[in-house]
Specification:
By secondary structure, the protein is mainly beta. The protein has four helices and 25 strands. The longest helix has 24 residues. It is an enzyme of class 3 (hydrolase).
């Protein structure tokens, strides 16, 4: 049973004339409550694997038809949505199919099913796209033979690559793109390709799309490379385990869309045990998204939305800081380039773990004020004002971190975050929270060593808010201003990625 449930939609109404939308298209993403193999470590026969795959393919078929009925021209299914996860290199063998390179071979599996052996999944996906007359993106397990004896060779000892793979089918069933995930996340069944693949495909209704998968979104290759090449529409299948306060998937999907100024079509798995939920259709101007709440039925969710085609010439222009948005000049607030140099309170600081990183925090102890917190030489500045007294019993803190995150991945970050603490004690600051009552007007600012900064505002009940204004200066200063918060503030964040400092 697939109910519509609660779907959130918001839009930034003020778009400058220079960013007028010439055309639009209808996109769909499906958050899939996948049917798992109950014992993924035990190898299966090909027939047994196909029987399992068919259960998820049948659900995909229903959702593709529903999307087409609502006018969708493209649908995205999540990572691992057909086979599941937690396989070993050996136990996934029966699920593997060899996906031909569309750059080297033109093949429509639906019309030519006998050209390649053991391609039942490719054939069904191709026919699914063809029957419903839409572009279809799915994720599957790919086998590519390689030579161990060739020198130099990075071929695995068993003579084959096993890739976590996105496949794209045109509306007539033609296979048009294949992308092998580069940044793996504890995936013993799969290999990373020897080099990152920069993969795009063209459509007649919206131009060019780029392909990434899940953990890729946190890294320069291939994600930022695609954006720097002018790709403004990104496909993002994921099997993402959420982690508050900073990396719930809808939080970072929205932040990436705003910070990179791109459309993101994001489909996640729904699995409550693994804390997986959160899918959406994001543009710099709007968001249609779903995030399951505690107690919701564990079921799939289809999202369909009309979105603007993004012209490549808009690259590098941050829609969230449009000239049409008014600057708040009310007393006590600074929205100039000199905020970090303004006098600020010297509140006592303390160190507390957030996202497994040692953040430097200071508590918000007044009804309104200004404060600065530094972690080493990296400083974050906050101006704030409580707008309602009802939530003053909740504890909030401003946190700063500058360093390399090393737990469940290794990457360099600079982060400024205003967070609601989990309890009434300072030691609870940085812990996971998803509910709040306090409403604040605020301006958060930092001076970053990278231009890749991703802004987000998350309010109570996993509701995203469109930042009122985001500004970036040439010297690395980025500010996020927000007022009239709709719900209690959970987290406001400027998440800077220092790609140039990443180490293997």
């Amino acid at each position: 049973m697939f109910s519509f449930g609660t779907v959130f939609t918001f839009a930034l109404l003020l778009i400058p004339p220079t960013e007028a939308v010439d055309s639009s298209y209808v996109a769909a993403v499906y958050e899939h409550n996948l049917i798992l193999n109950p014992d993924p470590r035990v190898p299966l026969s090909r027939l047994e694997a196909l029987q399992h795959l068919q259960k998820n393919l049948d659900i995909f078929e229903v959702q593709a038809a529903r999307a087409a009925q609502q006018g969708a021209q493209i649908i995205v299914f999540p990572e691992d949505g057909l086979h599941g996860f937690n396989f070993s290199r050996t136990s996934i063998s029966a699920y593997l199919e060899t996906v031909p390179d569309p750059e080297q071979e033109s093949w429509n599996p639906c019309l030519e099913p006998l050209r390649h052996n053991n391609t039942e999944v490719l054939q069904q996906l191709s026919c699914m796209a063809r029957r419903n007359n839409l572009y279809l993106v799915a994720n599957m397990a790919d086998l590519q033979p390689c030579s161990v004896s060739a020198a130099p060779s990075s071929c695995p000892p068993d003579g084959r690559w096993q890739f976590n793979t996105n496949v794209v089918f045109r509306s007539d069933g033609l296979l048009v793109a294949r992308y092998h995930k580069y940044n793996l996340y504890f995936e013993a069944a799969f290999d990373a390709p020897p080099e990152p693949e920069i993969v795009t495909f063209d459509t007649p209704f919206a131009g060019k799309f780029g392909l990434i998968t899940c953990f890729d979104i946190l890294f320069q290759e291939p994600t930022v490379i695609l954006v720097e090449k002018g790709v403004r529409q990104i496909i993002f299948p994921a099997a993402w385990m959420n982690q508050l306060p900073l990396l719930d998937i809808i939080q970072f999907q929205r932040a990436f869309s705003l910070g990179a100024n791109v459309t993101l079509l994001a489909a996640n798995i729904r699995n409550d045990q693994l804390i997986m939920t959160g899918s959406g259709i994001y543009t710099p101007f709007s968001a249609t998204y779903h995030h399951a709440q505690k107690g919701d039925p564990e079921e799939g969710r289809l999202l369909v939305a009309r979105v603007p085609v993004l012209d490549p010439e808009w690259l590098g222009h941050n829609a969230a800081s449009s000239e049409a948005a008014a600057v708040d000049e009310s007393p006590g607030y600074c929205y100039s380039d000199t905020c970090l140099d303004s006098p600020a309170s010297t509140a006592p600081v303390f160190v507390s773990s957030m996202m497994y990183d040692p953040f430097t925090f200071a508590l918000l102890n007044a009804t309104d004020g200004e404060m600065r917190v530094c972690n080493g030489t990296f400083c974050c500045y906050l101006q704030y004002r409580w707008v309602e007294e009802t939530g003053r019993s909740e504890l909030y803190a401003l946190g700063a971190f500058d360093g390399t995150h090393t737990v469940n991945g290794r990457y360099a970050v600079q982060v400024c975050a205003l967070v609601r603490c989990a309890g009434s004690d300072a030691s609870s600051c940085g812990q996971e929270v998803d509910e709040a009552e306090s409403k604040l007007d605020f301006m958060l600012e930092g001076k970053f060593a990278s231009r890749h900064v991703y802004p987000s505002v998350l309010s109570s009940g996993m509701v995203l808010e469109q930042p009122e204004r985001v500004e970036a200066a040439a010297d690395g200063r980025v500010s996020l201003k927000h007022s009239s918060v709709m719900g209690g503030l959970v987290t406001a964040c400027l998440y800077g990625r220092m790609y140039h400092l990443d180490t293997a």
